[in-house]
TrEMBL record:
Main localization category: membrane
Name of this protein: Putative membrane protein YeiH
Family to which this protein belongs: Belongs to the UPF0126 family.
UniProt cross-references to PANTHER family, sorted A to Z: INNER MEMBRANE PROTEIN, UPF0126 INNER MEMBRANE PROTEIN YADS-RELATED
Keyword Secreted carried by entry: no
Compartments in which it is found: Cell membrane
Membrane-spanning ranges: 6-23, 30-50, 56-78, 85-103, 115-137, 149-167, 173-194
Biological source species: Pseudomonas fluvialis
Membrane topology of the entry: Multi-pass membrane protein
Example of a GO cellular component annotation carried by this entry: plasma membrane
Length: 204
């Protein structure tokens, strides 16, 4: 139950970050509502479709209601939410969200008989899928086109989690380690403004 409510809080962060990232002058409330919701649930939707399982928000529509409410709140409070301190808090909550949903996605994939590498891919899709769809629709630079360290944190956290599970570690302890590592990595990247080093980027 605690994970459920934490997940809902993360959905709020995804939606609000989606509205603030995609919003630009002249964009109406319906467009921004869609941007927020697609950011919040888009990645999980892609994951479930690829796994061939019922889409999570179709089973529990509360995810969509919460994402919608958070999107409308972000629209109404956009001027205040762009304050540096508030925006940082949203980013850190977003970081916790990708950490939690990454582990949950791996568990879901493994429970349906998929191999660990597939499970890590599903975790990554869950974390970045909604943002990628939003960025394409908003015609803005997406996460994968920038040097921002985001997907890397999900992948490395997922690798650690699946490794601990493979070593016979307790599922609960492995989950805590996976979530903590991903959150800490992403949190440090936010705090220090880390980017992928230039030697690991394509140069002409």
């Amino acid at each position: 139950m605690l994970n459920y409510w934490i997940g809902m809080a993360a959905i709020c962060a995804f939606a609000m970050a989606g509205v603030l990232a995609a919003g630009r002058r002249g964009m109406d409330i319906i467009a921004l509502l869609f941007m927020g919701v697609i950011t919040a649930v888009g990645g999980g939707t892609l994951r479930d479709l690829l796994l061939g399982v019922p889409v999570f928000w179709m089973i529990d529509f509360n995810y969509v209601w919460v994402a919608s409410a958070a999107s409308l709140a972000a629209f109404a409070l956009a001027r205040h939410l762009r304050d540096e301190t508030v925006w940082a808090a949203i980013l850190y909550l977003d970081a916790f969200g990708i950490a939690l949903f990454g582990v949950q996605s791996i568990d879901k994939a493994l429970a349906h008989g998929f191999a660990a590498p597939v499970a890590i891919v599903m975790a990554t899709i869950t974390g970045i899928g909604g943002g990628l769809i939003r960025d394409v629709l908003a015609q803005r630079e997406n996460l994968l086109s920038s040097r921002e360290i985001y997907a890397t944190t999900i992948i490395t956290g997922g690798m650690l989690y699946t490794f601990l599970l493979a070593q016979g570690g307790a599922s609960h302890g492995a989950s805590l380690c996976g979530v903590a590592f991903t959150f800490a990595f992403r949190g440090l990247a936010i705090h220090f403004g880390w980017q992928m080093p230039k030697w690991l980027t394509l140069r002409h």
